[in-house]
Amino acid sequence: MTDARAIHLADYQPFSHLIEHVALTFHLSPNATRVQARLAVRPNPAREQGLDLRLDGEGLRLVRLAVDGRELTVQPDETGLTIRAADLPDTAFVLETEVEIAPEGNTALEGLYMSRGMYCTQCEAEGFRKITFYPDRPDVMARFRVRVNGDHPVLLSNGNLVDQGPGWTEWDDPWPKPAYLFALVAGDLRAHSATFRTLSGRDVALNIWVRPGDEGRCAYAMDSLIRSMKWDEQVYGREYDLDIFNIVAVDDFNMGAMENKGLNIFNSKFVLASPETATDDDFARIEAIIAHEYFHNWTGNRITCRDWFQLCLKEGLTVYRDQQFTGDMRSHAVKRIEDVLMLRARQFREDQGPLSHAVRPESYVEINNFYTATIYEKGAEVIGMLRRLVGDDGYARALDLYFDRHDGQAATIEDWLCVFQDATGRDMTQFKRWYSEAGTPRLKVSDDFNNDTYTLHFEQENPATPGQPVKGAKVLPIAVGLLNPNGDEVLPTTVLEMTHMRQSFAFEGLATRPVASVLRGFSAPVVLERAVSAEERAFLLAHDTDPFNKWEAGRALAKDLLARMVTEGAAIGPGWLEAMARVAQDGSLDPAFRALCLRLPSEDDMAQTQHAAGHVPDPAGIYAGRRRMGDALARRLAPDLPGLIASLAEPGPFTPDARAAGRRALRLAALSLLSRVDGGTAARAAYRAADNMTEEVGALSCLLDIGQGAEELARFEARWRSDRNVMDKWFALQIAYAAPDRAAEVTQTLTQHPDFDWKNPNRFRSVIGALSGHHAGFHHSSGAGYALVAEWLLRLDPLNPQTAARMSTAFDTWPRYDADRQAMVREALQRMLATDGLSRDLTEMAVRMLGD
Ligand code: 0A1
Ligand code: ZN
After folding, report:
1. Which ligand number lies closest to the CA of residue 380?
2. Active-site position among 293, 350, 712, 844
3. Is residue 293 among the annotated active site residues?
4. Which of 33, 453, 569, 737 could join 704 in a cystine, given CB atoms 3.0 to 4.6 angstroms apart?
5. What is the rounded average pLDDT for all residues in the chain?
6. pLDDT at 19 over 60
7. Over the stretch 237-293, which tens digit does the pLDDT of each residue have?
8. Which among 210, 33, 217, 13 has a CA at the least distance from the CA of 111?
């Protein structure tokens, strides 16, 4: 995209000055908070001398500015202020400013804002400039001391608490940090506390701060934090580095959570959990996000990013680390399958549409639009590939070198690849394409067998993406295994390294033609194109020793069948049904794995696959075909379902561990199938008997799925009305299970509900996001889904552009669909662009999605 306001990686320059120390004093007040800043500044020896000092600042009322105690009159502009070189000493000096801001009116939830009476901050990526004048860029790292004056009983900031008195606290953070990691919280909060003793024997005070009444819902988050701290010591040798670690839960938050140094701020839905209010999925997400934010302490905070183009340096690595952690805590097989499902649903979708961008993009207009699945999830996949290529030892050596060499620095992808090169001797030039080139490679596979030699032939294709028509060959680690026709493995998992556009690999000394299991563990983020018969898929589902490919075989069977149903009107034959029945009944398999196998491919996934295969997806046809598959599976399994459900009952009280959660997942999958044949009798009973949210929501979903559950919905609402996080589920479920032709209408009705607080991002997402996630409802031929989502995005944009822009990605798949749908989406996007005062955030998204 060419835009005058675009920022380019190629234009990077170090900042003109260094900030050695920052002292901030806050006097909190909803409409007139005063922020005094005292910056110890000196010219940057790495730059030419005698430069002006440019500070970022937005929406700040400047009260005072002084250099070395001498007051200056400077007129701020829209984006900051400039102090002329002539007004600055050429050696170290002290810059003082005082500004006034109004956190109460801050609906964008960036900078200092208020959430239900408490003050909190969100500074990543560029929120600090809404708090005070400052070089708001990650390569300017400084030590901060913060004094908070306010009426609230709890006043928090980064680092260690060094002093306090009535109505004030003082915090000192000894670790230099960029401004985006600054945080402040003030409120009437209660702590759930614990102590952690580090590897070297230091005691760290741990606190999770929540609203009064929520203290009883912090135990799981605290347990997750302690396990994360231990894991990072054991696996990466990383110890925590302050005397205190605070986490605060807030209800109004644009994202999941934020890794501010020593003071993580979380969306309350990723902290608060009790068996009665949180589902197994909620527990798993809390564990993963607590770990993610904690792991940032080293990968993000101690070593940060030089500029925002390097965002994947901290995010890809931290996601990779949190995925490893979850695998260790739960099940590597199940975690890998879930991660790949997510990758395909979000990242492949993004990468195959108009929003495709490189893991390290080269330009942006609004950096908040680049907190994407590509930066996070593909960024993590790239690290997984690196590890596969250099091996576990090479990876460990490279990471040790990374921490040694770059601690305290703002680093780049070049630095990152260099530690791999230096630690392992491997040249990273070709591998770097994974960072610079967008798009999902397609990998075509064929094979032959001659005498005793089996050969796999690979061909990679790297499709054009916006602004990148031509690409080079990628390095692909392709994990393969070979099975004998009797099911024995004759070649255990072996990583083939593909570096050319076409490459073949031969395996000699085989008595019979083997069955190949290709791309085990999903060893590279590619789309595999391989003609495999239904028999061979069923064989792999039964015999593959690689759990990912075992699951993948069942998945591919289902997708092949659904594709033939919608394009050729094929009937559901016994092959898939029998294969599924065998998995459902195989007591030797982990219940969580069986539950994943029984899950049908999503409608959006089918549309993506059909589009890639050259078909125009028909949302209504996919919806209907998928329902027919579910009904057929339910009929096939019906006799066994009550027994299966009974055998999975958990005796004793609820525990959120992976084993118990896996059993509940399979039980609810079975209950959902049973509901299709018993008219909902078992699900209604399960709803009445439920003593935890997983089963309450699970049983309710079964009923909604068959067009029932009105009474249960009313009971659910009456019971949970005052619990915002639980009520988000109530809103979202009704939309998710609405019939496609009613989805927009149901959503519209819910927007009239007195509890539809649309300024709260969680509530907005649970209603408007639920509609855009309802494939057949959102893409309904009437256009009602498109219209309603567009209308609400436009309403949200002036208040909270970041969340409006993020949610606009609902429209990014429009090029897949027929001309009528394309026209309706284009028209909606053009209408947005024609709106006066549209934010830079949403403008950039609409322009990129339109692609012209
Ligand atoms: N760094 C956080 C996510 C985050 C990113 C941007 C935000 O505002 C624009 C807020 C949070 C993480 O990776 O968890
Ligand atoms: Zn992160």
Report:
1. 2
2. 293
3. yes
4. 737
5. 98
6. yes
7. 999 999 999 999 999 999 999 999 999 999 999 999 999 999 999 999 999 999 999
8. 33
Label residues 759-779 b or e (16+ Cβ within 10 Å = b). Answer: ebbbbbbbbbbbbbbbbbbbb
Instruction: Supply φ then ψ for residue 397, to 5 degrees.
Output: -65, -40
What separation in Å is there between the alpha carbon of 254 and the centre of ligand 2? 14
What pLDDT score does 289 carry?
A: 99
Structure tokens of 416? 């990152």
In whole angstroms, give the CA distance from residue 804 to residue 790. 10
Mean pLDDT over 306-315 rounds to 98
The predicted-structure confidence for 715-763, as pLDDT tens digits, reads as follows 999 999 999 999 999 999 999 999 999 999 999 999 999 999 999 999 9
DSSP state of 40: E
Neighbours of 362 (CB within 10 A): 15
Reported confidence tier of residue 1, pLDDT bands at 50, 70, 90: very low
Give dist(CA 361, CA 714) in Å, integer: 48
The three-class DSSP label of residue 785 is helix
- What's the token pair of residue 517? 């299991």
For residue 568, pLDDT beyond 70: yes
What is the C-alpha separation between 696 and 834, in angstroms, rounded? 45
Whether pLDDT at 2 is above 90: no
Atom of ligand 1 nearest to the CA of 318: 13
| 293 CA: nearest ligand 1 atom | 14
Q: Do the beta carbons of residue 689 and residue 271 sit within 8 Å? A: no
Which token pair is 792? Answer: 């609400």
Q: How high is the pLDDT of residue 4?
A: 66
- In angstroms, what is the span from residue 314 Cα to ligand 2's centroid? 7
Hey, which residues does 244 pair with through a beta bridge? 205
Site to probe by mutation for ligand 1, drawn from 247, 254, 297, 371 as the one with most ligand atoms within 8 Å of Cβ, is: 371
Copy the structure tokens of residue 836.
């006066």
Are 550 and 544 within 8 A, CB to CB?
A: yes
Residue 517 β-bridge partners: 481
DSSP 91-129: S-EEEEEEEEE-GGG--S--EEEEETTEEEEE-TTTTGG
Of the candidates 218, 299, 215, the one whose C-alpha atom is nearest the C-alpha of residue 259 is 299
Res. 22: pLDDT tops 70: yes
Cis peptide before 125 (omega within 30 of 0): yes
The protein residue with its alpha carbon nearest to ligand 1, atom 13, reads 315
Q: Which atom of ligand 1 is nearest to the CA of 289?
A: 14
Per-residue confidence at 650, pLDDT binned at 50, 70, 90? Answer: confident
Is 852 a residue whose pLDDT tops 90? Answer: no
pLDDT tens digits for range 29-75? 999 999 999 999 999 999 999 999 999 999 999 999 999 999 999 99
What's the 296 CA to ligand 2 centre distance in angstroms? Answer: 7
